[in-house]
């Protein structure tokens, strides 16, 4: 087994160094789909989560319960719903995005969105109320208070996006159902790994697994750099 | 002639969902250029009184009259909400436990200036940092500071904005004598140089006697006596005050 792993690592390195066209295409597609899905879900999910966490309104508890439930929504079921909705005879069949990379983005967006909203809302709900009072007493209006609180919670808000990226790039069931795992079109690293395992090509599957880990690691390194970067949030002294 | 900066008349504050007010029947004047001490047992409503003075509490839950420089602030007169935000800028409240934002000492001090669109005048900031013995810590992350240092940063952050009223909630609680001395010295200096006023809640009777010109005694949510500090401590008029000051009151 140890020799299998070693051999897979060597194969993974070879595939990367030789820029194997198919592996490159699969890797880039996986990264593109997951990054677009997470960026879009962050753009909608973070502000929504911030409002949910900070504001008080009737029905908030119900909405939070719904979002928390959606965070645990089984991806396969999500894939099935999307498949039915966008299949030829479904209500959105005319859109014609099934078996394309667009539907992969859609399904990952829908899976990432509740994670980002839920974690952002929980982060903002836990911001110390004394910080709000301090911002107010220093003269902040509502908009300035809002910006200060986001800045204060930025690390946790970025963590929500990182968690969602992890969930998106590692997703297989929903992606398989809506994308169909079509070579050079909708085959992602996870679906490719599933296919290689089914075909009994363990070494190649492991090699793709290492590439997936490496890609996820590099994206997370970048996101973590952004998360802790002071320049984005502070004016220089 | 002393002029009243803040006047409270029959002020009550009842939090949402509660029937009982946390402070009631509050009648209090804060005069220009004075340090007003607020003493009272734990849970007597000192923090609520201070937050009321700082206009930090929900205006809809605050009953009674609040005047700032003779101008009625509460109850609000039609369309006065924007005025409330402007008036609040003259009243800075500092929590009992230091509250700071993530970042360095200097970044925290600049927050208030940024909010108000005020210029950074380096020598003024440095001078205040020196007064509070913080100059060497200017670029340090606030996470690495001690409790006394954090409280002093809060004071610098407030004083650089030159509010007319500084409202301090037990600013020296649990601090060592050196920190206490530094903070008290700077509070006295502040009212002298900026003709401002300070309200300070304290559990320390000696501190009230050292720095407060007048002292208010808050017991069981009501002010039972207000007077010149020396007279209040030597010959309190109210029997409850006397019992509280002599330790006969068990609370």
Task: Walk me through the structure.
The complex is a heterodimer of chains A (237) and B (251). Chain A is an all-alpha fold and 237 residues long. Chain A is 76% helix and 0% strand. The radius of gyration of chain A is 21 Å and the shape is globular. Chain A starts with a helix and ends in a 9-residue tail after the last helix. By secondary structure, chain B is α/β, with parallel strands linked by helices. Chain B has a domain at 1-90 and 201-251: P-loop containing nucleotide triphosphate hydrolases (Rossmann fold, 3-Layer(aba) Sandwich), CATH 3.40.50. Helix content of chain B is 35%, strand content 25%. Chain B contains nine helices and ten strands. Chain B has helices spanning 46-53, 81-88, 105-116, 122-131, 147-159, 177-194, 205-211, 229-234, 239-245; strands spanning 4-13, 23-31, 35-39, 62-68, 71-74, 91-94, 165-169, 197-201, 214-219, 222-228. In chain B, the strands form two sheets. In chain B, strands 6-7-8-3-9-10 form a six-stranded mixed sheet, with helices on both faces. A four-stranded antiparallel sheet of chain B has the order 2-1-4-5, with helices on one face. In chain B, helix 3 (105-116) packs parallel to helix 5 (147-159). Chain B starts with a strand and ends in a 6-residue tail after the last helix. The relative contact order of chain B is 0.18. The chains are: A mainly alpha (237), B alpha/beta (251). Chain A binds chain B through residues 128, 130-131, 133-141, 144, 148, 151-152, 230, 234-235, 237, and chain B through 51, 54, 56, 85, 88-89, 91-95, 97, 99, 101-104, 106-107, 110-112, 114-116, 139, 157-158, 161.
């Amino acid at each position: 087994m140890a020799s299998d792993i070693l051999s897979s690592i060597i194969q993974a390195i070879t595939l990367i160094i030789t820029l194997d066209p198919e592996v490159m295409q699969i890797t880039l597609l996986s990264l593109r789909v997951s990054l677009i899905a997470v960026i879009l879900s962050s753009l909608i999910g973070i502000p929504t989560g911030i409002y949910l966490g900070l504001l008080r309104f009737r029905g908030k508890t119900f909405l939070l319960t719904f979002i928390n439930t959606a965070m645990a929504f089984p991806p396969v079921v999500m894939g099935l719903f999307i498949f039915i909705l966008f299949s030829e005879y479904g209500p959105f069949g005319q859109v014609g995005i099934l078996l394309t990379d667009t539907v992969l983005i859609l399904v990952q967006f829908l899976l990432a969105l509740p994670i980002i909203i839920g974690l952002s809302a929980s982060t903002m709900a836990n911001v110390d109320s004394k910080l709000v009072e301090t911002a107010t007493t220093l003269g902040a209006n509502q908009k300035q208070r809002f910006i200060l609180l986001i800045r204060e919670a930025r690390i946790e808000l970025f963590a929500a996006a990182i968690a969602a990226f992890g969930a998106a790039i590692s997703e297989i069931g929903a992606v398989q159902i809506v994308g169909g795992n079509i070579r050079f079109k909708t085959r992602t690293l996870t679906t490719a790994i599933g296919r290689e395992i089914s075909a009994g090509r363990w070494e190649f599957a492991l090699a793709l697994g290492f590439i997936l880990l490496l890609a996820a690691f590099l994206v997370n390194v970048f996101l973590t750099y952004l998360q802790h970067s002071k320049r984005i949030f502070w004016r220089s002294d | 002639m002393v002029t009243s900066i803040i006047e409270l008349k029959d002020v009550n504050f009842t939090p949402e969902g509660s029937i009982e007010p946390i402070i009631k029947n509050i009648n209090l004047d804060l005069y220009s250029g004075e340090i007003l001490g607020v003493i009272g047992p734990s849970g007597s409503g000192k923090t609520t009184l201070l937050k009321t003075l700082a206009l930090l509490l929900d205006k809809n839950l605050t009953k009674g009259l609040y005047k700032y420089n003779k101008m009625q602030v509460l109850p609000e007169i039609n369309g006065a909400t924007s005025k409330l935000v402007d008036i609040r800028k003259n009243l800075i409240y500092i929590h009992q436990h230091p509250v700071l934002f993530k970042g360095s000492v200097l970044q925290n001090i600049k927050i208030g200036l940024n909010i108000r669109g005020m210029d950074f005048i380096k020598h003024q900031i440095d001078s205040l940092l020196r007064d509070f013995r913080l100059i060497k810590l200017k670029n340090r992350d606030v996470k690495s500071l001690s409790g006394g240092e954090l409280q002093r940063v809060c004071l610098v952050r407030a004083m650089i904005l030159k509010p007319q009223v500084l409202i301090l909630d037990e600013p020296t609680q649990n601090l060592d004598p050196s920190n206490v001395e530094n903070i008290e010295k700077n509070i006295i200096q502040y009212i002298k140089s900026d003709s401002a006023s300070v309200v300070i809640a304290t559990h320390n009777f000696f501190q009230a006697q050292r720095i407060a010109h007048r002292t208010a005694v808050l017991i069981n949510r009501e002010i039972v006596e207000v007077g010149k500090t020396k007279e209040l401590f030597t010959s309190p008029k109210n029997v409850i005050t006397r019992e509280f000051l002599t330790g006969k009151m068990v609370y």
